[in-house]
Amino acid sequence: MKAAVIVFPGSNCDRDLAMAFEQAGMSVERVWHKDTALPKVDLVGIPGGFSFGDYLRCGAIAANAPICNAVRAHAEAGGYVLGVCNGFQVLTETGLLPGALLRNAGLKYICRTVDLRVETADSAYTESYGAGTEIALPIAHHDGNYFADDATLDRLEGEGLVAFRYLQNPNGSARDIAGILSPNRRVLGMMPHPERASEAAHGNEDGARLFAHTAEALAAA
Ligand SMILES: NC(=O)CC[C@H](N)C(=O)O
């Protein structure tokens, strides 16, 4: 089981994400944004952070980095991609996921643990939680306010592509959405950080199952 973690200038969760993948049994290569090709991997992780200083819009410059053509090709060929926080922002900016992450409704950076509900078990990432399970994960962002037009939101809900919802919406996200899946359920973007809640030393291991099950599901695929 092999994973790549993309590193942009300003990424600050790339080591954490790589470690979470490794603890789940994957071998991980970190890949610089200027590279034009990915190593042969099953899963690409796009980490949290402040790529290119969040200039222009969070994730907008990163989405146009050379490596993102390879990430797009990987996803379009049916590969798995997990984008966390800034990674989710990058995924919307690449067009691999619909919608956009706007400034938090309260205009403040929010850094705390929030309660979430797993909305679908129909993905490698969420299967082991079971639909309806409540978990807690940290958030740390100023642009986590998920926006999409009503037709897109209706489609996401109708096709069961909402992965996680906030129980108490912290940032104004449409329909309390905290994470969404692509139609083939292999691309997941989420604002909460499962890699920051994935070992005992974190004081919260709710994120560990996401990595463990994803590794198992990909090994079985
Ligand atoms: N933790 C992160 O990935 C932060 C994402 C982004 N820079 C924001 O603040 O919205």
Which second-level CATH architecture applies? Answer: 3-Layer(aba) Sandwich
Assign the CATH topology: Rossmann fold
Mean pLDDT: 98
Order of helical and strand elements: EHEEHEHEEEEHEEEH
Largest beta sheet: what is the strand line-up? Answer: 2-1-3-4-11-10-9-6-7
First-residue to last-residue Cα separation: 10 Å
- Indicate the structural class: alpha/beta
Shape: globular
How many DSSP E strands? 11
| CATH C-level name | Alpha Beta
Number of helices: 5
**Helical content band:** 10-25%
CATH superfamily heading: Class I glutamine amidotransferase (GATase) domain
| Small ligands present | glutamine
Give the number of domains: 1
| Rg computed from alpha carbons, rounded to a whole number of angstroms | 15 Å
Features:
9-stranded mixed beta sheet; binds glutamine; about 220 residues; 11 strands; Rossmann fold; alpha/beta; two-stranded antiparallel sheet; 5 helices
Give a description of the structure.
- This protein has 221 residues and is an alpha/beta fold.
- The protein has one domain: 3-Layer(aba) Sandwich (Rossmann fold).
- Helix content is 24%, strand content 26%.
- The protein has a nine-stranded mixed beta sheet with strand order 2-1-3-4-11-10-9-6-7, with helices on both faces. A two-stranded antiparallel ribbon has the order 5-8.
- The radius of gyration is 15 Å and the shape is globular.
- It binds glutamine.
- Glutamine (GLN) binds next to strand 7.
- It comes from Pseudoponticoccus marisrubri.
